[in-house]
UniProtKB/TrEMBL annotation:
The chain crosses the membrane at residues 36-60, 72-92, 151-169, 175-193, 254-281. GO terms for cellular component: plasma membrane. The keyword Protein biosynthesis does not apply. Keywords: ATP-binding, Membrane, Nucleotide-binding, Transmembrane, Transmembrane helix, Transport. This is ABC transporter ATP-binding protein.
Length: 591
């Protein structure tokens, strides 16, 4: 799919529609109470602020001519009080709304993260991580203000507009229509640029997503970049993506600028028309100078909320571009999930059966076809074969990380598609070549799969897999802080920690995908004892290119040509003198 590259724009699969806005309202509605309070505070604050000119008028017309010093002090204090109260109310409102904005994005972000945790491997196979990250962090931030303050300000501005219109019509109906005459022109301009604006903001969201994806990829691959001296080339790519982002941003700004520009000019044209119609067309008998003065003041006031509403509209269009991405992620189907009538998988013995299994990552491109095999509980199975033959795919299917296209996979006779994923995966242990280390202590990392394990149990697991010695060599031992991906640890040390993690979780079925490939032969011999412990009584699937590691497995399956080409014990396969024999002989010659 086009989106899985940093410089390819994501296409929108679900265009924005009113349904999305209704979904945004779900988050806003949860904040109904503070939002109503904030609205009342705003209205009060604005109302109190409006009383200042009235006090001023009274002081100028009555108090000062009467030379009443005492009343003057009273009015001054009242004026001061209105300012203080209005500032206090505005401050409380702004604090409340900051909180509301943060609560809304907290909710959206939590939902996004929860959903991302459930999305299958396939989703992550298809996208650069940076494009996922930007949705959870940046896009959600960008919509906070519109979803909180935006709504309240919109209501206030509409009310403001209504009040001004009422006053305006009360003074002069005909001239009011002259002022309103600018509105259709303004709406026409909005309609004209609406689609362009939406596309422009979508482009900004796309370009920022691309930039983010590339930055993230570059940071992850910095070691390879430096090894191959690709810095200058990468800077070029970054600069290109950055320029694309800047251009997209400039275009939105240009379109956005059209709105205040139109409002300013329309306000001037309307005011000029007002003078023209008032003085020339209607004549001094019908319209006094005072009315013209009042109406031109209303004309200026009338266009201010329109300008504010247009700015809000701009922010809304901007937020929509982000909201549609956020909802697109939330709508991403969890294709690997529990069937409606899924059952708990009871504690298993570990028998694994493949019945005519067919699987394709991309429709029509089968990686496995009609694959059938039977593994008894407690057996150790080695999967060997050429690169890209489908060994990892086979083990990924046992954990149901992907849905199969045809056939059935059973564990102890239970069809995987009919059982609850959690109950399946909690009884499986999977160790990959690149064992992931999370930020935290070594103790936390080993305990990752069984949070209730005691320190003693953690240490016992580490001892079994020969990890205890090197852990104790660190100054803080098990409490040593390791950073994300474990870059403070050697590959082998990371493997040993993940062995301990898996052992502690005590799975019934164990999968080791090239899990010992980063461990030197001597450590591997040491580890063999621990590994034997780990394998004891469990069904295990071991993928290894180093055949010496798997010689002793109960059964070796040679994966090739979309299925199992050969299967048997090491001795049987050697005697058969087929593909396994060739591979084994070639490795022996190299050794
Ligand atoms: N996420 C994916 N999306 C599409 N195709 C994939 C994906 N993962 C693997 N493949 C393809 O499926 C085939 C089998 O891959 P798999 O990783 O199972 O091979 P393997 O036998 O484990 O290889 P290796 O020994 O190199 O680890 C390969 O042709 C690979 O290109």
């Amino acid at each position: 799919m086009a989106r899985n590259k940093f410089d390819i724009d994501e296409s929108l699969e679900t265009p924005f529609n009113i349904r999305h806005f209704r979904r945004a309202l779900v988050y806003i509605k949860r904040q109904k109470k503070p939002m109503i309070i904030a609205f009342v505070l705003s209205a009060l604050s604005a109302g109190i602020a409006l009383s200042a000119p009235l006090i001023m008028q009274h002081v100028v017309d009555v108090t000062i001519p009467a030379k009443n010093a005492q009343a003057l002090i009273g009015w001054s204090l009242l004026m001061l009080a209105t300012i203080v109260v209005s500032v206090i109310l505005a401050t409380i409102r702004s604090r409340m709304m900051t909180r509301v904005g943060q609560d809304i994005i907290f909710d959206i972000r939590s939902d996004l993260f929860k959903h991302l945790q459930e999305l299958p491997f396939q989703y992550y196979d298809d996208r650069p991580q940076g494009k996922i990250l930007i949705r959870v962090v940046n896009y959600v931030n960008s919509v906070s203000d519109v979803l909180s303050n935006g709504i309240i300000n919109l209501i206030l501005e509409i009310l403001n507009l209504l009040f001004i219109a009422i006053f305006m019509f009360a003074v002069d109906v005909k001239l009011s229509f002259v002022i309103l005459g600018g509105l259709p022109v303004f709406l026409g301009i909005i309609l004209l640029i609406k689609t362009k604006q939406r596309r422009a903001w979508q482009a900004v969201s796309n370009k920022s997503s691309n930039l983010n994806a590339y930055t993230q990829e570059s940071i992850s691959g910095i070691r390879v970049t430096q090894i191959f001296n690709r810095e200058a080339h990468n800077e070029g790519t970054f600069s290109r993506l950055s320029t694309n982002y800047r251009n997209a941003w400039m275009r939105t700004m240009y379109l956005n600028f059209l709105i205040p520009f139109s409002v300013d000019n329309l306000a001037t044209i309307v005011t000029t028309s007002l003078y023209f119609v008032g003085l020339l067309a209607l004549g001094p008998e019908e319209v006094t100078f005072g009315v013209i003065l009042a109406m031109s003041s209303y004309a200026a006031r009338f266009w201010q909320p329109i300008l504010n509403i247009s700015n809000l509209y701009n922010s809304f269009i901007n937020a929509v571009a982000y909201l549609e991405r956020i909802f697109e992620t939330l709508d991403e189907p969890v294709t690997v999930n529990d069937a409606p009538n899924a059952r708990e998988l009871p504690p298993i013995k570990g028998k694994v059966t493949f019945e005519d299994v067919t699987f394709a990552y991309d429709p029509g491109l089968n990686i496995l076809e009609n694959l059938s095999f039977d593994v008894k509980a407690g057996e150790s199975i080695a999967l060997v074969g050429p690169t890209g033959a489908g060994k990892t795919t086979v083990v990924n299917l046992i954990s149901r990380f992907y849905n199969i296209t045809g056939g059935k996979i059973r564990i102890d006779g239970h069809d995987l598609s009919e059982i609850k994923l959690k109950s399946l995966r909690s009884q499986m242990g999977i160790m990959l070549q690149d064992s992931f280390i999370f930020s935290g202590t070594i103790m936390d990392n080993i305990r990752y799969g069984r949070l209730d394990a005691t320190d003693e149990e953690v240490i016992a697991a580490a001892k079994t897999v020969c990890a205890d010695d090197f852990i104790r060599e660190f100054e803080k031992g098990y409490m040593t802080e390791v950073n994300e991906r474990g870059s403070k640890l050697s590959q082998g040390q990371r493997q040993l920690i993940s062995f301990a993690r898996t052992l502690l979780a005590n799975p019934r079925i164990l999968i080791l995908d090239e899990a010992t490939s980063s461990i030197d032969a001597q450590t591997e011999r040491l580890l063999q004892k621990g590994l034997n412990e780990l394998l004891k009584g469990r069904t295990s699937f071991i993928i290894a290119h180093r055949l010496s590691t798997v010689k002793n497995c109960d059964k070796i399956m040679y994966v090739s040509d979309k299925g199992i080409a050969e299967s048997g014990s090491h001795n049987e396969l050697i005697m058969r003198r087929g593909r396994y024999y060739k591979l084994y002989s070639a490795q022996k010659m190299q050794a």
